[in-house]
Each structure stands twice: as structure tokens, then as C-alpha cells.
Queue: 4 jobs
Job 1
Amino acid sequence: MTMRQLLTRFGQRSARATVRPIGADFAGSRLNLLQAEVRAGRWHLRAAASVKYPMPRADLLAAPKELARFVNAALASAPFQGRRVIAALAPADVRILPLTVHLQPGQPEAKAVAKAAAEQLGDSAADHVLDYYQVRGADSEGAERQVLVAAAPKPRVLAYLAALEAARLEPLALDIGPAAISRLLATLHGSDVGQSVALLNFGSGKSYLTVIWGRRLMLDREIDFGEQRLARRLATALDLPADTATHLLREHGIGGRPGGAAVETHSELGRAIREILHADCQALADELAHTQVYVASRTRGSSIARVYLNGSLARYPDIQTRIGELIDVPVHLLNPLDAFDHTLPAERSAALATPIALAAGLALRGGLDA
């Protein structure tokens, strides 16, 4: 069963509306919402909010009355209009399968992808909801297709849709993180259609590297690099509690360039952190180098033009400098609100930058003509 079929069965409303839907990201600890409008061919921010849950996410989604009250308050915190949403499935509920599909003469692409996904999933294929996203390559018009298949267990998808409707939201579509993030990056670089752009999204346990070429998704890869791993490494080396190690990382970063401002202030500690985390940073450097080679192979020699940073480590001191040492391309902190015309104060924009990226990509679904 495809995602579109399931949404139709679940009561998706097909009538067009002048008000665009809200991008809704029920993240690990916060509900992130963003709604945009199109004026004169440009994206304008209508409303954005990031609100902390009053209880663990799973408990909240399983408590309809509390969920409805929480969502109502979140929508009332900014000038949102309507309750139609495009939501993202939780990463733990989605299995992303990178597949190479060979089309037979006259064979529809969707059927070929479904067959390849069924072979990969085996006997459990019938119990999953499937969708797929074509990955761009220089030879994407030939008989071979590179695709990312999103496979989610049907009971979890149904439970999530039921929770959204219990909150009196109207789910128009369910999306996945890589597709939404690629849409955001493409909007940020709408005029640079020939370039590859990457986002390194740091999570607590894992990080994710997304690459687009022009306006199409090229790569989405999980990387074994995250705050918890770095904190454990530091805690073990310095014989510290994990919480103390995390605090040190957030205060001093992962070891900027020798002679940098942060290291000068705490030179001994900065050098120690840099040395302790060297192996992890080198492993990340290797991943980035392999990605550069892959991008060049798929684009006949093109390279990544810019790397954006987002997530937990993006708030670390000197993080741009340290990542810039690992990959020889310009490195920038991501502010998703740069994709929209808006009048938010700089302080508010900066506070929303880290949590709102996925919601922004969801809100952009359908493009300027939707």
C-alpha cells in the first residue's frame, strides 16, 4: 500500500484551499510548526513555533485530550491559519532503503520500485506502507534509477494518523525527513540549480548527511557521530560523569583550530578535547571525503559547493571552524527561515533556527504553485 492510498482511505480532503498547510514536526521533545504563504512568486513566513512537550512524546500522542489541548495552545502561540498539516513520520518508524532499480522496456517506474522494495523487505513487505523518492544523477533518464524507498509499518502509520486527527488536525500528507530537508535546501539555493549542497544534521545518537544536486535529492546517509558518542568518549578519557562531559562540550566545543579564540581562553582544556575527539572527527572527515567522491561520480565531476550544519552540535563554539577543517568547502550554520521573507527579530529567528528545519521543509511541499 502506498502513502497516498492510505491517506485517501483515512479521510484525506482533496479539495484545494487558498491557505497553505502547516508543516508539523512532532520531534523528540518539541512540536515544531511552520506555515508559509506565496506572494508574488516568493515564499513569505506566516507563522512559526517550537513548543516543548509537557510530557514524553509517546505519552502525549497516546493521550488524545492532553494532545488536543497542547496542539491548540501551540497553534494559538503564533498566527497560524487552519488545521491542515503535512507531518513527518518519526525516524524510528521509517526504514529508508537506497535501491538501484532497472526498468524493463515499457515498465512503469512505480511498479519496478515496488517490486525491488518487496524483494528487499521480504515477507514483511505487505505489512508496510511504501513511498519512494528518485535520487538525482547525471544519467537519471536512462533505464537505471537510484531511489530512496521509505517503508513504514502500517500499524504505526495508522496510529500516527489517528493521533493527528485526535488533535483535530487534518493530515494532508505524511513525509520523511530526507525529502523535506532536500526541499528546504533546494529552496534556499533556487538559483544555484547546477550545484550540490549538503546538510550535516547532528543528532543526539546519530547524525545525518543529506546532499541535493540542483533541486533534487541525491543522497541521505546516517553517520555514527553524535553528541552522546562524543560525550561518552570525553567522559571515559577524563573520568567524568556523562552530564559533565556534555556540559563541557556545549561550553567549549569539540576543539577548534589551535590559536582560535575559544582555545586561547581555555588552551589546555581545548587541546585535550581536540586530542580526545580526534579519532571521531577523523572518521567524520572520512565520511565527508567518501561523500565528495560519490557526488563527483554521480554528477560527472561536480563537487559539494556548501555544507550547512544543523542540530545539537551546531550550537557548539567554533563548530564551523572544526568542520571546515574536515571538508574543504564553505561551512555555514543553517537558518531555515532564510528560505522565507519574514520580519522576525534576529533573536527569535536564531532561537527557531535549529528546531524548525524539518517543519520548514514540510511546509514547502508542493512548491510555489501549490
Job 2
Amino acid sequence: MRPLWNQLLQLPKVVLHDHLDGAMRVETLIELAARTGHHLPSTDPAELTAWFVQAASSGSLELYMKPYVHTLAVMQTRQALIRAAEEYALDLAAENVVYAETRYAPELHTRLGLSLADVIAAVQEGLAAGSAKAAGAGSPIQVKTLLCGMRDGIHSREIAELAVRFRDSGVVGFDIAGPENGYPPSDHLRAFEHAHRHGLPVTIHAGEAFGLPSIQQAVHACRAQRIGHGTRIIDDIKGADLGDPTRTELGPLASWIRENRIPLELCPTSNLQTGAAASIAEHPITALLDLGFRVTLNTDSRLIAGTSMTREMSLLVDEAGWTLDRLRMVTINAIESAFVSDDERNLILNEMIIPGYAKAEQQ
């Protein structure tokens, strides 16, 4: 295992779906909780990490989100947000993530008086500091931001406006997050229309806890350029479990997603925890990739899911038979789906990803 892990650790990586408030260092969480008086299930790092994984492995999205109460409790001040964001960038760079888009909902960080703009500015400051330190240590990384409105909230239009306002400061897109069932993306059309009107890219959580209708609304009614998770698109594909692309039949929505190259931000470990998939071996990511969908590999919430990009790769190699070619494919898919300019995308692809995989092939 160790030689494989070390090889995978060195591979260049791209992550498009990772929640900032689900990716704190456990030691930082314990320290900040002690300062603020917030009670945690444990103050032992190993025990608390295990608690998060167990609590998240609930079989439903709604229960999966409950552990966020602890990270959100301590991410309510400017300094806490700066620190969490700085450490976030450093932790990703340490496993050779060369490009990342982190997402969070600013409205969840205003309990102690920060304005929505204050929250965004603090996160951007922290990400910039972490990225600069990583580059200085020889591990360059770009970290961009996606701002989320909450499906069950009332601030989505305001968040979309702020995403446009901060687009020159590292914000590259807009999303909605939170419970899917009962909160369709079409409830937030005004927010999406504002983003589209200003040329701001959109990704939408869909097809995880709720089925095909949420994906259909996301891409047709709300014009999402990417889908967060989207595992349930497999429900529109007959014969996908046979392992033979020639024996599959795509339904109209699946055909549209594939033909229009809509990226799917799949998160295997998280999808197992929420009940969206039964096992890594049976996860739709392999079938969808082999069928020609634009699949990307992601972590979702690294602390709460107990994972990392290296671990996600390792699981797919060990349990789903993935090869270096498949890992390269999802990495290239991810950078080609990033919400950045073609110049930035091509620079990362040609100077970091392609050479990194070529080096791995020679080892």
C-alpha cells in the first residue's frame, strides 16, 4: 500500500467540489472550540476525526450535513476564517493539488456580526496567504472560490450579486447547497439569472439526495455549467451495471448531459456516506467515465468524510480497478471544466498535469 500511496501522492491533482467548512484541520477545530467554549464530541484528534466519519456515514444527505454544526461554530470571526482558509490551501498543496475550487455559504458565517462581504474578504485573504506559502515551499497551487446560496435560505440572490462583485478577487462561480429534497434549484432562478447576466459560471448540487428531476432542473431551468455530484444520472442509463458500453442505453437526460459535456463533480466516499452509492466498486463514477461522460473526482468534505484526493484515488485503484489512464482522464476533465480562462487552464494542463503524469509513467 505504501508504494502505491506515495506514487498517488505525487500525482498532480485538481479538485472542483470541496467545502471549506468541511475541510478544517481537526487540531485547529479543537483549538478554536476551546477558545470559544464550543463543546465538541471529543478533544482527542483521532477520536474526533473518527466521530466525524461515523456521524457522516448516515445514509442520508440531511444527516450527513449535521456534523457541520461543529466546524461552523468556530468559523465566525475574521481571524478564524483567515486561518481555516490559509490551512486549507496548504493542506491541498501538500498532496500536490495544483488547482482547486473551494465552496462555502457566506451566510453561515455571520453569527458574530461579520457582514457577508467581510466573510468573503477574510476567506480570500486566507487562501492568498496559504497559496503564497505553498508556492514558497515549492508546491504551487491556485485556489479559487465558489460562493453558495442555501437552498432553504433567502439570500441566494444577494450571494450571487456578491459573487459577481468579488470575481476579480478570486471568486469564480456560484452554487446552491443544502438539502435537495423539497428545495428545487428553480426556487432560486433570480440568483441564477443574475449570475448568467454577468457571465458568472454556475454549478449546482443536484442528483445526490434527489433524483433525475433535480438534475434536469439544474441544467435546463437554471442553466448550470456543471453538476455537483450528479450520481443519480445513472438512473437514466439502462445496462450501466453490465460493464459493457455497447450494451447500455442512455435516456434523454443522460444523452443530453453527455453530448453537451456537462461535467459531473463526483465524490465517491461522500456519496457512500449519504447513501447515493453502495460501494466504491459499484459507484457510478467508473461506468460514467467509461461511457464518455465528463467525470471529475472530488472530496466534498475532507474532514467530515475522512478523506483526501490521494485517498479517493487509492480507493478507486484498489476497489474499482482504476489505472493511471483513468486517473489522468478525470484530472484532465477537471482542469478542462475549471471556471478559469483558457490561458490559465492550458498553463496548468501543459506545465503541471501532463508532465506530472508522464513522470509517473516512467517510474
Job 3
Amino acid sequence: MTTLINKKHHVFIRLPMAGMILFVVFYIIAAMQYPGGSYTFPNKMGFNLKDNYLCDLLDGQTINGLQNTARTYARMALAILCFSLMLLWVYLPKLFTVKNKGQIIMSVAGILSMVITLFLASEVHDIIIRIAGVFGTVALILAVFELYRDQYLMLFYLGIICLVLFLTNYYIYETELLLYTLPLIQKITFIFCLSWFILLNRALHKKLQVK
């Protein structure tokens, strides 16, 4: 029976990490396929790390009016990432020694954030960002608190950085203060958050002693 449980965990615990790696691969492909155009430089060719948002790759048309040949890869990447992180949020409470209701709220908020993010390519992009952002913030705060309480200090400090970056993105997005910096800050945030999620995934794998 224990062997069967371990095999089950072996499959599902490894999937989020694999999904995050696939997300990066598909998004790089999408960026290479992007015809061009950003809000700062509408007629500039190609995808620019400094000027383009990751969401630009999801649109049916580019900002300069061309058909977006990158969107298929970008939407596949988004779906893979969302389902991967949903699975991680499902399993994350197992990382902690003492179980409580806060972990359930954390898990549900994280899952809802990813479910809502799946619709990021829709015409109500701004609403999706705001709603998913609220659920995501709740999940991150609770996760960071639980990490501190269980003495996962490295993950706690990295989680604080991710939370600060996440809230910085949200603040700039809402206030438009220093908006020109947001595309680059967005990518820095993604790097930190994906790194954190991967480390969480590894810690969870070790905690469950999946061989």
C-alpha cells in the first residue's frame, strides 16, 4: 500500500516542476515567433524584454495590427503553467507539519487564482488580472506565513521577495506610476516566483519522501 502511495506521489509531485519548465520553453518559442510591436514602440519588430508584456504574446493581433503567430504557443504555455500550479497548490498543505484551516484557504485561493488566470487571453484581461491578483495575494501571504511557522526559512525569505515583487507589479499596474518599467519588472517577478515554486515543489517532494 505504501509503495502504491509513493508511486502516486512520484507522478503528481513531479508534474508541477515539469510543467513550469515546459511553460518557459513554450514562452521562449512564442517570443521568437512574435511579429513585433509594443505600447512604447508599436512598429518595432520582434519581442522585446524591456518593452513587451508577457500578455502581448496571448493576443490575437499584435499592437501594430499584425496577426499574432505566437499566440498558440503562448496560450499552451499559460494553460500548462496554470494546471501545474493548481496541482502544486493542491499538494502544498502536505508540506507543513501542523495542519490548519489557513492552509485550506491558501490552497483554495491559489487554485482559484490559477483557474481565473486561464482566461487571461479573453477580452476582460484587466478584470482577470485584478480578480486573480486578489486570490493570488491571499495564497502567497498564507504560504509565506506557514513557511515561517514551519521554519522553512530560505523558502520564507524567497517568498517574501516574491510577495513584494507581486505587489509592486500590482501597484504599478493600478497607479500607472513608472509604468514604463512594468514589462521588465514583470519578467523579474516571473523568474523569482517560478524559482520559488520550483523550490517549494522540491521541498514537498523531499517531505513526502518520494523516491
Job 4
Amino acid sequence: MPDAIADAKRALRAEIRERRQLLSEQARETAADGIHAQLDALVDELGVRSMSCFLSTTAEPGTRAFVTDAVARGIRILLPVTRTDGLLDWAVATADGDIAEGMYGLPEPVGELLGPIAVNDVDLLVIPAAAVDDTGMRLGWGRGFFDKTLGSMQRCPPVYAVVYDSEVIDEVPSDVHDQRVTGIVTPTRTITLAPTRR
């Protein structure tokens, strides 16, 4: 990756981290409610029966209430579990599932692990992001887990990145390994950029 692109990514991530840290508890709760409503509508619109999602950290737009309610509605949700080789294992979300701190301090489910290919059968992927632009280029947090996952899928379902409204920006710095998403979910809107990724 050219140094200029790497530097631009680092600077943008740092700016976004700082903005997220400054959000009030009320702003976080309001955002989580909005994400819940947007994801509920998306799941209904797409007729999703099986999907992947992630357990949000305190700084991320909240996904946990959505995951809990979706499991209660009978939707099968795979949650990512980081591996040392840069790939993701998956665990099925359960109503009473334990959560522990995984690699990099990320919240991850405790339980039976399914291998990286388990995600090949889902109807929808909902993934974290630092920012997304209107072409669907996503800026992750620099570890490449989701870019590797998306890049290796033979038949990729719709992929939506979850960000705050201010993180939908004009242009995300990118290189050849970065993967685009199908759409963006914010607390106030869902933007579908293309019917399919490929």
C-alpha cells in the first residue's frame, strides 16, 4: 500500500475514533435505537432468515439490541470471532449467550466455533466500519478481517456497513485489497448503493 494511502487511512481512523469518544451516552442510545429500526426494516425488506452481524463496542453504533431481538424472532445470526491468521470464525448468537473480550479487545461470543466458510450461507452481512463513501468503499479499522472475508466469498450476499451519519463521507482512501459494500446503515437511514456486490 502506498504510504500516502496508508497515512490518509490512519489520519481518518484517528479522527473518527476521537469523534466517537466524544459522543454522549444519550447520543449513543439514540443511535442504537435508530440502528435497531433500520436493521429491522432491512431484514424485513430482504426476507432475511440467516445473517451475520457484529457485537458493537461502546464506541460503535449499537447493534446488540438488534441482535438480541432478531434471535428472539427466529433469525439465525452468525457473530464474528477473530483468529490469529487474520480470518474470522463464526458463532451462532443465542438468547443467553456469553460474551467475552476477544483479540484486540473486541466483544465476541463464547461457544462452539464454526469455520470461516460458515458465513457463505447467509442472506445478509452486516459489518462494522469507520467510514463509507457513496461508491460503497469502506474504511475498516486496519486489520483486514472483513476485507479478507468478503474477498474470499464465492457468492456474496448483500453487505451493509454500519456507521454514524457523519461517517458517510465523500471519499474513502482505498487500495486494491479493500472491498466495497452494497449499502450503508446509519441511525437515520439505510442507503442501498447497488443490488449486488459482484
